[in-house]
Amino acid sequence: MLRLIVSRIVGLVPLLLIVSILTFGMLHLVPGDVRERILGFEATPEQYEALGRQLGLDQPFLVQYGRWLGRALQGDLGTSYFNSQKVTDAVLGALPVTLSLTFGGMLVALAIGVPAGVWAGLNRGGRVDRIAMFMATVGQALPNFWIAMLLLIPFAIWWQLVPATGFTSPAESIGDWLRSILLACIALGTSASAALARQTRGAMIDVLQRDFIRTARAKGLSRTSITYKHALKNAAVPVITTIGFQVNALLSGALIVEQVFGLRGVGSLVIESVRTQNIPMVQGVVILGTLVIVSVNVLVDIAYGWVNPRVRAS
Amino acid sequence: MSVLLDVADLHVHFTLRRGLFGQEKVIVRAVNGVSFMLQPGETLGIVGESGSGKSTLGRALLRLVPATSGNMRLDGREITKLRGRMLEFRRDVQVVFQDPYSSLNPAMVVADIIGEPLTLHHGMRGAARDARVGDLLEQVGLGRHQLERYPSEFSGGQRQRLAIARALASEPRVIVCDEAVSALDVSTQSQVINLLEDLQAQTRVAYLFIAHDLAVVRHISHRTGVMYLGRMMELGPTERLFEAPAHPYTRKLLDAVPVLDPAVQKRRKAARRNLPVVELPTPTRLPAGCVFHTRCPHVMDVCRHEVPEPVPVQGGGWVACHLQSSGPKLAGRPLDALG
Amino acid sequence: MSRAATGVAAEDTNAQAPLTGFARTWRAFLQHRLAVIAAGYLLVLACVAIFGQALLVHDPLAVDLARTFEAPSAEHWLGTDHLGRSTLGRLVVATSVAMQAACLGVGIAIVLGAPLGLLSGYFGGWWDRIGMRLVEAIVALPALLVPIAILAILGPSLTNAMIALGIANSTAFFRLMRGAALEVREELYVDAARVSGSGNVRIVFRHVLPNVTGPLIVQTTLAFSYVLLAEAGLSFIGLGVQPPESSWGVMLATAQRYVQQQPFLAVPPGLMIMFTVLAFNLLGDGVRDALSRAGGVVRAASNPGRVPGAGATRASAAAGSVATATVGEQPASGPSVPQALLSVTGLEIRFRGARGGELAVVSDVSFDVPAGRTIGLVGESGCGKSVTAMSILGLLGDSGRIAAGSIRLAGQELVGLPESALNGIRGASIGMIFQEPMTSLNPAYTVGNQIAEVLVRHAGLGRAAAAARAVELLDHVGIPGARQRAACYPHEFSGGMAQRAMIAMAIACEPKLLIADEPTTALDVTIQEQVLDLLSGLQEQNGMSILLITHDLGVVADMCDEAVVMYAGNVVEQGRVDDVLLDPRHPYTAGLLASMPQNLPQNRPQSRPRHHDRSGRLTQIPGRVPPAWAWPAGCRFHPRCPYATEVCRQAVPQMVAADDRRIACVRAGEIDPVAGWRA
Amino acid sequence: MSVARFGQCGSRAVAGAWHASPCTLVMLVCSALLAACGPVVDRDALADRTIRFATYQPLITFDPHLSPTGPTASTYLSPVYDGLTAPHPDNPYDVLPALATEWRWLDDRTLEFRLREGVRFVDGEPFNADAAKRNLERMLALNGPRRNTMRSIREVSATGPYTLRIALYDPDPTLLRNLSTAPGLMVSPAAFDHAALDLNPVGTGPWIYDAAASAPGDYYRFRVNPDYFDPPGEDFGELEVIVLADGRTRLFSVISGQADIAIIGPPEADHAKRLGLELARRANRWMGMTILDRRGELVPELADVRVRQALAFAVDRQAIADAVYFGYASPAVQPMAPGLGYVPELDDYYRYDPERARALLREAGVEGFSFEVPVGSAGSPDYEAIQHYLRQVGIDMRLVVMESGAYTAAAMARTFPVNTIGYPNYDPDSRHLAIWHTQSAFNPFRIESARINELADEARFSLDPELRARNYREYFDILGREVYSVVYLHVDDLAVYDDRKLQGVRLGAYIDPALRDIRLRRTTDCPDGSAAC
């Protein structure tokens, strides 16, 4: 198990390196002169040159990348084009909002999707199954920001059960934090739960047809025991993979849903940075976002190893 | 008789990588120094348990996996190192696989499946091709009207007939039958075996008949080779090999196959030696010396260190066993053979 | 048991008019009502996208500042927006934009991802490794950030957004095609094509490509959903379609802006997105389903022989013929045997078909298993032997049931027992082992755990005691190093060891009866020998009875005291094993024996069985075992029987007992069942 | 399997954490839902003494000498910095004393300031003539975006510890006002070389920026400066500026009590009023198009003045003001609001008259033409409406929606024949230099209009109000009749606030409230006497 964890973490290094080269390279393809955007149109050639030196634009690409990487390893992802704000600070400042939404949404999705999927899988073909799967199919088709809009109006505007906007840090008040992300998490979780429910149901049905379930029945085990001991753990294998994918989808969804609630998370940061072509900021968001996703994937892999001894061994 | 196929000291090794960075290399010696010859119109049976390398041997012969070392000659022509499409070689050596379901492309109709080699090797197209495919279908006991059907519309036995028709299409000299009847039910199996025998009588095609079912091999083969963990342990005329096996492993295999006479079988069962259960060696961790020594009831010191060389056996063929070369003998015959 | 359902499909298509793969898929698709509706909806949507603007009553760009934010009315069916434009009109324009955008995005994704993935998967090697690393890297990026980063370079616009989404989504196609190509590459038919002389190009285009188009279509529909949702999201946050261009996302952004003035504005575009994505998803589901139903024939049926009771769940018009089968008639009393431990009488098992209706797959089956004896249930696949065995434990699954007959264990009637009572018997009085020991063990738990579980359940042992007993049991069934092996997972066992572990589990509670369903079929002969010896040894020690289900008559000869031969859901012959094997009385038994190549020991027996002919050719039984829905009237064997007469075509043979034998053949006694096969 | 089984998570046969987890999750989420469904906490109680202002634009830089003027400057710089002068809240052409207590023109090219004594920057450095001189010199040397507004300054000298003299190249009637904007704000000379000055201001203002408690881009907190030279009284509060990109969200933030005052757009205004919130409004900007390509290089038709006039006649301004701006705008035909540069006669000249527009086009021999217009995404509805009206007279205006950065850049390049920037509707001197002067940034085609330049040059180098009024009247008369810019509306800036908590709210010269003037209501001020406010 330890070996699995170590190998997964070591495996991250080349992955992150490739991602960083990709983003660094890609974002340096931006047409036009960066300096123009920073200095405006009235700057002198001397100013241009000085800024070029300051940004290291006079160096070859690899040197630029090497410098950037060196600093990035020390936690410095560069500085905004437009002021002295550190990219790392800006992104880390925005992450709590986005991560709250992502993982809150995941929690909602798990709480709805997994039981619904198990239930539907156990009652394959029954009414519960048909209703659950119909809802899941519809749920998958709902844009989460639309759900967010629809939730916002009654709950936050008419009845004011939760604030319509604003994020409270969990460090300040857990209750306020929950309130500030609740609607967004429900909006995000709804569509994610649909995918999760379908996947769980499929996994459940698949597992229930396996030979070892027949063995378990032939052993005279109770249905409860067969369902919860023998079926669930095996059904968890594909479901856990789905969770990995869903975290990625939820993070993306959070970027948009943030806008509905006017929460200043990574979404606002990146949208604004795209609009102003603040490349270091976009780059920082992509890199740190990737770090989040791959960290989650490592956790997913570890969980995967826990339910699937085969993975652990290899 | 002339030699059609000559395989000498064939090795097929695979490399697996393990560990964090794939730093641990594990070499799987799937086929480990196998030699034999095949004559036109002959059936050579290859028997062995799973992991014995018999299928890999067939695939190496078909050039589906590369040989690590050794030589294969077809009609005296070196075929081990052929490159490219090898059309001429492909025409001469064909295959019938075990699984009649996955060996036929589900997206193609019969005419295309069987017609493909006709187009490739004989340039036949259109009506001419279809006519020839029809002939082939009739030859294997199917009807011309089935030209436009998909493989999924046939039963297991019929599919195996289709696979045989495809193999025949290029008019090959050798057909590798890789467990060709193993997946079939008994009543269908006998139909296919009879078909193979009839075709051989008509076309003098040679079969390399790979199977785990000794009874089938005994029935169909002229000569039989026994493989264990990548090595050929014994090879000889089928009747001799089955009636007087020279290798303890051959004997063990033969003893393990139940016979249909309950009285006889009960006697054999009572006579079995109840050896302790051991973990079987795998192709990744081959025992030193004779690969069979870990399971051999007659194991001698020499078996643990030296790989036995093939020695001729009375009644035809050869065997690679120290008992036959350096073991104790009685009246000029190895002790074990007296059983 | 549900695998059985697909196992027969191959058989039934043979009887129907030949269908091309496409036609079959199409027909399967048409049965998917929701998917057909979805396809219709998308077709309408495509027409709206292409022709809609021409048909509109209202110019979608016609501003009417006097009539802003109107609710739906007869004139404006969906109301008006902030500039007094018809929402319906804008929706039509938006549909056109969305569809074009989606086509562009998906097109880019396919063109970029599919060919590369196909080649990468087919050829493998370095390119594949580099490609996969790149794809892994892109996949590790937060999904929407890739398009956003690309938009940072190209600037926000619809085309750029679509390029971005296309690139981001191309990885899905890359991975799909790579996976499919990898899978297909391993298929035997690709090897066969190579042996036929096909080059790589030909293999890729003729063999690989046609077999991956199905998944490709499914992925395409999913990609449409993804791109539509992502486009809406990007437009919503202002990075996609730019107003005054209209798209669903832009309309939602507008709706959000004017939510105080007219909340209804959010409804039409949202529903439109929902319905369209839903339609694509349903279409994808339908296509996937249709493909797996049509193509699944190939995949599911590629495990021939492994499917116990194949032919079980198929229902069709032919079910009518089943009605002639005799049901529930009490058979003549069996041969004189010691007190029966298990007594099966007049058993009939029916399965619900996929299209409704019920089909008897086993009928009028009776036999006894005396205490301490081994009874072999023999027959080819599809004869109903496994189903019979499963029915004893009440394990027929949801679609099967015992329709008639009785199963008594030591006098206790098992048919109709409630589940909880059966659970007390399963694993306790009756143990069971299966054909595939590897898949019959739960991969997620250690072997020791799974054995201990039975003991906790039935023997009332505590966890620790059960674990200790599990080790003893493993040792007892001859597993070396039992203590360490108990802590191992099934995948760390070889097939033979796993079957020993299964046996340990089955005998843990010292059952009176062990049902062994093809226990050695998946094993090598030398291992088979050991397992059979183990079973015999255990039987000697604790005197349990064994019901052995097998197709291998050699195993019957080795193990059994008595043989029960089944054909097409009926018992055709039954008797002492020497009698049945050496002197078969039923033509089927005789034919079966004659068609088997034989391995006789070197020291030949004095008496060679009569049916054994070493003249050269094997005896052939024409045809094959028909599937349950195609069972003929009269004697079910008559179409294949060389002795068949008109009587056989009509009369259902009854079980007749004579000299410890029971034979169900109308012509029993008048014929020599061996001689006829020689002709 | 039965539905009921599902609930048996805790049954004895089940052991191990996994089995319990679906149940645990359900319970966790349920408790979260319960916890979250209580009433919204009364946040006023938590931060009673803070004025929370929700705006749309994040800080660009706290370094005034590198900052543009405009809303971000007045939102973020004005709390922490003072200039020599301060803008007059009601009169855009007048200033109030600030760090300078009085000033006088020694001649029309020399201005002398008397500086306030005893003022210290928040880092403890004293403010004096030397500090002021070094600030102005730094500003000139740094060449920031608004240096051009100070281009008349020739030399700055400290003639005493608290007297400062500024020598000019030319007479400059706008200097005093410009000194109150960003480039004229005073930074502690000790902080000049701080690399992070752009995020850590060191000024003399009534508030001190609390960097530790702020999240740049998200929210900015300002503490009251206890040593401010002009103590504002105890009803003065702490300040928090919250950035919310979306107007609707900003309104919600006031509704849910997260902000006390917010910039909103016209769509939100009525909703805010219905909820009983107060609205502050001020018409600061005009909405319309400036014709960049008056020589017709890109669009030949635009060279004809009749075509340009047609653009002005074709649009129903009132309808747009009512429908798109919900009444928070008024029809206008000229850039300047009443005051300097306003020409009353023009108001009668351009009325909504599509017939006239068509006739003019016919006269010009133009039969339908098209041109492209860059529009910021927020301004899109306005131009979609205008597009509709222009189409009625046969003009095909195509909108190209752009992000703000690209949009401003496009307005200064020869890419489009017009721009749609909404300039302030006062201060003709600056507008001339920015828009219509031959060398203006927003005059990329370098179109020269001798008479206009002449009128403006005379006016902007003159300290004579009469002459300035006369010249600018003629200037804008020409501009109006020859349609250098087509003006459609003067648009209100809007701020919504909670008057139970705040008083003294009015909008400043840009789209932002005059933050320094806002006072907290004391409990006794509450209309209903409740303690909530």
Structure description:
- The complex is a heterotetramer of chains A (about 325), B (about 350), C (about 675) and D (about 525).
- Chain A is an all-alpha fold and about 325 residues long.
- Chain A has a domain at about 85-265: Orthogonal Bundle (MetI-like fold).
- Helix content of chain A is about 80%, strand content about 0%.
- Chain A is built from 13 helices and no strands.
- Chain A starts with a helix and ends with a helix.
- Chain B folds into two domains: about 40-65 and about 85-220, 3-Layer(aba) Sandwich (Rossmann fold), CATH 3.40.50; about 245-340, no CATH class.
- In chain B, a hairpin with a 2-residue loop joins strand 9 (about 225-230) and strand 10.
- Chain C is an alpha/beta fold and about 675 residues long.
- Chain C contains 25 helices and twelve strands.
- Chain C has helices at about 5, 10-15, 20-30, 35-55, 85-125, 125-140, 145-155, 160-185, 190-195, 200-235, 250-255, 265-300, 385-390, 420-425, 435-440, 445-460, 465-475, 480-485, 495-505, 525-540, 555-560, 575-580, 585-595, 645-650, 675-679, and strands at about 340-350, 360-370, 375-380, 400-410, 410-415, 430-435, 515, 545-550, 560-565, 570-575, 655-660, 660-665.
- The radius of gyration of chain C is 33 Å and the shape is elongated.
- Chain D contains 15 helices and 19 strands.
- Chain D has helices spanning about 15-35, 70-75, 130-140, 175-180, 245-255, 265-275, 305-315, 315-325, 345-350, 355-365, 380-390, 405-410, 430-435, 450-460, 465-480; strands at about 50-55, 85, 95, 100-105, 110-115, 155-160, 165-170, 205-210, 220-225, 240-245, 260-265, 280-290, 330, 370-375, 395-400, 420, 485-495, 500-505, 520.
- In chain D, strands 1, 8, 9, 10, 11, 12, 13, 16 and 17 form a nine-stranded mixed beta sheet that branches. Chain D has a four-stranded antiparallel beta sheet with strand order 4-5-7-6, with helices on one face.
- The longest helix of chain D is centred in the first third of the chain and has 20 residues, at about 15-35.
- The termini of chain D are far apart.
- The model of chain D is unreliable at about 1-45 and about 530-533 (pLDDT under 50).
- The chains are: A mainly alpha (about 325), B alpha/beta (about 350), C alpha/beta (about 675), D alpha+beta (about 525).
- Chains in contact: A-B, A-C, A-D, B-C, C-D.
